[in-house]
Design goal:
About 5% of the residues have low confidence. Helix content is about 45%, strand content about 15%. Strands 3-2-1-4-5-6-7 form a seven-stranded parallel sheet, with helices on both faces. With about 260 residues, it is α/β, with parallel strands linked by helices. The longest helix has 29 residues. The chain contains nine helices and seven strands. The protein binds adenosine-5'-diphosphate (ADP). Adenosine-5'-diphosphate binds next to helix 1 and helix 6.
């Protein structure tokens, strides 16, 4: 075991998503990465496994699973240097029609899932006076979008919690970094586009094009390749002075500037 490698725990690393790319990006910086996902997605992680990447079972919606996974990482490597709270589920449709169980699920995974990990990991980082916590939000958390109100609300919660946490953990040497991507050509983006298309909701004229990366898109802007986003995030998170927010993607800077001015915290 190489004790000098930074230990990174990433949630939601199934193939086709941004988490999968985060694993490759952090490993390419010489980190030792625990690539986690739900038990039924573990087969997805098999081809990521290497000298620097270890697949791990972790359901962020379960207290027991989170506690067990964090214990396993600590038993094996002794510490967590970087936590990447990436796991997420979509929730698309008009709020007035959306099934309440689906809304609850989105909160359990997208918002409370991050809190569960933070509660297990942050006190240990604070005790060592070192660590970085990366909470993945979305630009739609800053600018709520019709037909995605449920998902947007969970991402707005991520945004608010990350800001509070950043101030709470700063005295203990723990950096909290919120990641705010725009449209990304990955799992959730595709799933949302397909669901919207199936219902023929036309508000998102151009959304499918944006996700498919075709020309002529769109209200959500040009979609980013997940690998490009992941490499940018890994580089900035691991830099000596990590930023408090990483806003990435077409038009996202403008949305963020409107929603968070002034960024005074
Ligand atoms: P994105 O576009 O954000 O990458 P994906 O759907 O491709 O969207 O990725 C989200 C990841 O989060 C998937 O790998 C999915 O299996 C994972 N995920 C969803 N729910 C949970 C959960 N409860 N615990 C851990 N991972 C989860």
């Amino acid at each position: 075991m190489d004790g000098t490698k930074r230990v990174v725990l990433i949630t939601g690393c199934g193939k086709g998503g941004i988490g999968y790319e985060y694993c490759k990006a952090f490993a390419s910086h010489g980190c030792y990465v625990f690539a986690s996902d739900l038990p039924d997605r573990l087969h997805d992680l098999a081809d990521l496994a290497s000298e620097n990447v270890e697949p791990l079972e972790l359901d962020v919606s379960s207290d027991e699973s989170v506690a067990a996974a964090v214990s396993e990482v600590l038993a094996s490597r002794g510490r967590i240097d970087v936590l990447v709270n990436n796991a997420g589920v979509g929730s698309t449709g008009p709020l007035a029609e959306l099934n309440l169980d689906e809304i609850r699920r989105a909160w359990e995974v997208n918002a409370l899932g991050q809190v569960r990990l933070v509660q297990e990991v942050a006190p240990r980082m604070a005790a060592r006076r070192a660590g970085r916590i990366v909470n993945v939000g979305s630009v739609v958390g800053a600018v709520a979008t019709p037909w995605a109100g449920s998902y947007c609300a969970t991402k707005a919660a991520v945004d608010a919690m990350s800001d509070a946490l950043r101030v709470e953990l700063r005295p203990f040497g723990v950096h909290v970094i919120k990641v705010v991507p725009g449209a990304v050509r990955s799992g959730l983006g595709r799933a949302n586009a397909e669901r919207l298309a199936a219902r023929s909701w036309r508000l998102y004229e151009g959304f499918e094009d944006a996700i498919a990366g075709r020309a002529g898109a769109s209200q959500v802007g040009r979609a980013t390749e997940p690998g490009v986003l992941a490499r940018h995030v890994a580089r900035r998170v691991l830099s000596p002075r990590p930023p408090r927010a990483i806003v990435f993607g077409h038009m996202t800077g403008l949305f963020a500037a409107l929603a968070w001015s002034p960024l005074w915290l």
